[in-house]
TrEMBL record:
The lineage of its organism: Bacteria, Pseudomonadati, Pseudomonadota, Gammaproteobacteria, Alteromonadales. The keyword Kinase does not apply. Keywords: Antiport, Ion transport, Membrane, Potassium, Potassium transport, Transmembrane, Transmembrane helix, Transport. It holds the Pfam family TrkA_N. Residues 565-649 form the RCK C-terminal domain. This is Potassium transporter.
Amino acid sequence: MEHSIFIHILSMLVIAIVAIALLRRVGLPAILAYLLTGVVSGPSGFHWFTQLQMQSVAELGVVLLMFTLGLEFSVPRLWAMRRTVFGLGSAQMIITAFVAGAIAMLIGQDLVAAVVIGSAIALSSTAIVLKLLNEQNWLRRRHGELSVSVLLFQDLAVVPLLILMPLLANDGTQMSFNGIAWGLLTGILAFLGLMSFGKWILPRIFDEVARSRSNELFVLSTLVVALVTGAFTQWLGLSMALGAFIAGMLLGESQYRRQLEADIRPFRDLLMGLFFISIGMLLDFNLVMQYWWQVLLLLFAVVITKILIVHGILKLAGENSKISLSTAISLGQVGEFSFVLLALAVNYQLLETEVSTVLVAVAVLSMSIAPWLIRHSVDIAKKISGSNKKPESEPIDIVLPNTDESDLVLILGYGRVGQTIARFLKTEAVPYLVLDIDPTRVTEARAAGENIHFGDACRMALLKKMGIRQASLVVVTFCEPRQSEECLAVARKLAPDVKILVRTRDDANLHELKEAGATQVIPESLEGSLMLVSQVLFKCGVPLARIIKRLESERRNHYQYLHGFFSGTETDFTLDLLHAVSLAASASAVGKTVADIPWQTLDVELRAVRRRGEEIDPPPPEWILRRNDILMLVGKPRSIEKAEEYLLQG
């Protein structure tokens, strides 16, 4: 029995992998692949699992989704966008929910079902819209900003809806205003209690966790906090997702926000995949085929109605036709949180399974056509709004220069070097973003107003969140070579074209870092020597242009003149030494050319040859060695000993 369950789980995962790969090739979101996997694996397909069997695990996906949503919750951002968020967002949500709910009641649904249906249809897909707007570089355009504002309010509106769902489940009894009021009061008290917990205790917990420098402990602590707060709100009779959202919101303003999001994302994506698979199991394919024309009609009605409502609200707000229409088209689909509401409604028996199946089918189809609609929203809006207007009268949609995307410098590591770079960038008004893993340093810098975040710079998800693909320059300032190499590999994989400067103590790993993708490697000790040399030459009257040319030549030649020095009493056997070998008349190398000597096998470099007071640097391959020539060799001490023995004795 256990063996067959394992085979079924493995088969389901294989189906999910194949479905995601195929749908991504045609530009469709992974959500549809998970839903398709649920259809194939559920009662409508092979009947390996039921939705009830997946429910407990799938609910954890919703919990983690709400936790990451809380991390993105920013009070300053909300306040800056308050007019569009709370004005446009609330108008869209209320009007769309009212219209959809009213139509649901007209076709025979009761009040509770109408509330659920209206709320589900009013929501749009944050993940799909933001991803596609970002791909098209439209987030800074007016219609992009308006779309983000509406989506932000919709995400916030999910919170009271999560509170409302359990309150509406009264075992068939009528809704009580006192019951709803008491539930809302319980939610507010839970919010205040968790806020107090988050303000005084959570930061101290994560300070201690961060000081441990253990990724495993950080991930485990994040999962425990999300699940414990969810369990607390569930104990109060509310949903687990509400508690997770509050916990995420409490940690959203801390320096650990980006690291938390990067750590929780793999678990969230996996469990959310299982959640959408469980939603797919709710789809009765026979029922969908039976009501196929109603599904298509409802799909057309939902998309057109949402577009008309958003377009009308924006026109009343004074936006021009092109912007309002492109915004409305971008928000015409049904969102992923609608699946959450529909699943909760079925679990609480607020909605019939047949109605839920039809709505899920409509949501799936609307999300399927969403990528095409969003990519062509501007063109469609131009054709519709521009047909009756002259081009001269139509306002130009100006893309303002975004310093965060065009000139951003990403500094990885905020020690002495990183802070020095940041200070000079600040004086030149160059925007920068810093990532560091020292919790004390991050706390101090954030208190001073620095744009710094806590996190491990070797984490791919974290660098992606920091916007490495939009950065113009990345500066790696770590002292540890292995950490620099790992960070460089991840950064180069995410952003193949970005310029990456790597700071090292010396050039021991210069070639490895160059091969790993570093645009330029700056060895600290060698550059310090070059700066001192430049000052000496300048004081001696050497022209500045010649000094700069000489320094650049040294950098291009990998600091050739900064290697190989005469040893003193204490020899460092890890450094290259400069050693002079004088060829006697009986030396084996006399009469041979420079090319005849196996320098690579001897693991030494022939820096120069001195003959009769004249230095040839470097000697040509055909140069014939003679008696009394002095060879200047560079290499490790033991290699130099072997080379000298070979040159003199053969």
